[in-house]
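Hello again,

I reread your note about wanting to compare the complex against the isolated chains. To keep things tidy I'm splitting this into two emails, and this first one only covers the full assembly. Below are the input lines as submitted, including protein chains and any nucleic acid or small-molecule components. They are followed by the predicted structure of everything together. The single-chain runs will come separately.
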Amino acid sequence: QKEVEQDPGPLSVPEGAIVSLNCTYSNSAFQYFMWYRQYSRKGPELLMYTYSSGNKEDGRFTAQVDKSSKYISLFIRDSQPSDSATYLCAMTIWRWTGGGADGLTFGKGTHLIIQP
Amino acid sequence: NAGVTQTPKFQVLKTGQSMTLQCAQDMNHEYMSWYRQDPGMGLRLIHYSVGAGITDQGEVPNGYNVSRSTTEDFPLRLLSAAPSQTSVYFCASSSRDRDIVTEAFFGQGTRLTVV
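Full-complex prediction:
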């Protein structure tokens, strides 16, 4: 079982719709949660990060974390064709080794298509 | 402010050749890492560094070497290229909160083909 599960899609919605993107995870040690957007042939771009359970809003984007259910979501309001991209969730674990973190664990990404 | 700069953007290698992928960041981050991205596999961590002189292996380190002599630079070396190393490589630079990676900023990637 992968530590982070994310539906690859594609997810196709009409312009203006509310988009819901989701990830589930199995390791309760994950501490920070992030959402990245990746356009074709580009590097991932950080959209949002959060530590706490609950909601965090930034413009048209809302990140939601439910640590008890091991479930995170990204909502996009008033979706635009320019939102068409692959959305990656990512999370980090705190390793008590003294040597530092071992990097981010990513979902495989959901390909989102916003139809004009 | 350039952020994370990777060179080259594209590269074709023959099997057995070696090369170095360059990565530089100007955000004074201690934490840097290299990922590869393959279709259906997502992003996988190759190596990471928590500061100058300190490196460690990630999920898929075989066939790659890294070193970190300065805070700014974190090159990735392919020792003897194999077709299985055909991929898109991303360098990332991250802020830290204690020992937890928080925000990671990615370069634009190096698209490598090994023939």
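For quick reference: The interface with chain A takes residues 4, 31, 33, 40-43, 45, 48, 50, 54, 56, 58, 90, 92, 94, 96-109, 111 of chain B (CB under 8 Å).

B.
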